[in-house]
From TrEMBL:
Lineage of the species this protein comes from: Eukaryota, Viridiplantae, Streptophyta, Embryophyta, Tracheophyta
Family in the record: Belongs to the iron/ascorbate-dependent oxidoreductase family.
Record's keyword terms, sorted: Iron, Metal-binding, Oxidoreductase
Record has Ligase as a keyword: no
Designated name of the protein: Fe2OG dioxygenase domain-containing protein
Length: 351
């Protein structure tokens, strides 16, 4: 398997990474900065007080999250309670892993999506011969158990304990956010608890090396997430873009923040109130970029459909049929992550 993280620096982009002009990014980054388009994602201050007894403040934070979600599908959160040492600890350990000699990483290389820990390149949803400028780790990260941890690499020595610590913290934050989303929508606080968020939590650690000509490449294809909620640590290097009003909005890093976005299951359960928004990754020529995405999944056997509270037969009828999550996963893979193609399999079409 070819890995970008072990390749010598390229003077030019190899042909296999060059996209046709119609698929290239219209907005490119030069280093960590990009053009200012005048629109930025909302930054929600979670205020630890909002989570510890101040009902009025908690209600305002919940409403702010839902407003941000309805307009953008993405927002950033600060004062979230995850320590900077926890975030930095795992990011440093993951960077050490990518920097290891190729022979030490090769045992983890695999395109077998059933493996609980694997290293790969480009993306499994790429149906063309053109490759994305990306290496990645895909792993199960929660609930943490001895059986799960034994699949994680022993080197660097900090990797296992730092991953376990980060995974627990990110999962707790996700559950807090799901509770706030529910309250902001007028649902009971534990609406998303149980099977809807109780699947095996996945993590993608994406590594994008410097690219000699970002105008020719993409880091990751435009897609929507298949699960319920994503908690993303993107570090201090920009590269994530979200679709907004028909154009691509650069998600600028905010110190200490997590980027939050909703997956397809959130859109379906809320009957379209909170949409899953298309996003992609672009490359830059100056520095490597690494993002850590924690993906909150339903259980495979979970039955999913619009919540009755989000449906009104006269003014807002159900937009999606009920299904089992495993069926959705199959449709997502078949549709190669295409937003409209996958959702069309579950929409209720009315004359």
């Amino acid at each position: 398997m070819e890995l970008l993280c072990n390749a010598p620096a390229h003077a030019s982009v190899p042909d296999r990474y060059v996209f046709p002009p119609e698929k290239r990014a219209a907005l490119q980054l030069d280093g960590v900065d990009g053009p200012d388009d005048g629109v930025t994602l909302p930054v929600v201050d979670l205020h630890r007080a909002a989570l510890s007894g101040d009902d009025g403040l908690r209600r305002r934070v919940a409403e702010e999250i839902v407003r941000a979600g309805k307009e953008f599908g993405f927002f950033q959160v600060v004062n979230h309670g995850v320590g900077e040492d926890v975030v930095r600890g795992f990011r440093d350990a993951a960077a050490e892993f990518f920097a290891m000699p190729v022979e030490e990483k090769m045992p983890y290389c695999s395109d077998d999506q059933s493996k609980p820990f694997r290293l790969a390149s480009s993306t499994s949803y790429d149906k063309s011969e053109t490759r994305y400028w990306r290496d990645y780790l895909k792993l199960q990260c929660h609930p943490v158990s001895d059986e799960l941890v034994r699949h994680w690499p022993m080197e660097p020595t900090s990797f296992r304990p730092r991953l376990a610590e980060f995974s627990e913290a990110a999962h707790e934050l996700a559950q807090t956010l799901l509770s706030l989303v529910a309250e902001g929508l007028g649902l009971r606080a534990d609406f998303f608890a149980g099977d809807l968020s109780g699947g095996e939590t996945q993590m993608n650690v994406n590594y994008y090396p410097p690219c000699p000509d970002p105008s020719l490449t993409l880091g990751l294809l435009p897609h929507c997430d298949r699960h319920l909620l994503t908690v993303l640590s993107q570090g201090d290097v920009a590269g994530l873009q979200a679709r907004y009003n028909g154009r691509w909005l650069l998600v600028r890093p905010v110190p200490g923040a997590f980027v939050i976005n909703f997956g397809h299951q959130m859109e379906i359960v809320t009957n379209g109130a909170l949409a899953s928004v298309e996003h992609r990754a672009i490359t830059n020529s100056a520095v490597a970029r690494m993002s850590v995405a924690t993906l909150i999944m339903p259980k495979m056997e979970c039955r999913i459909g619009p919540a009755p509270e989000m449906v009104d037969d006269e003014t807002n009828p159900a937009k999606f049929r009920e299904f089992v999550f495993s069926e959705f996963m199959e449709a997502y893979n078949t549709a190669a992550a295409s937003r409209e193609d996958v959702l069309d399999s579950f929409r209720i079409h009315r004359d």
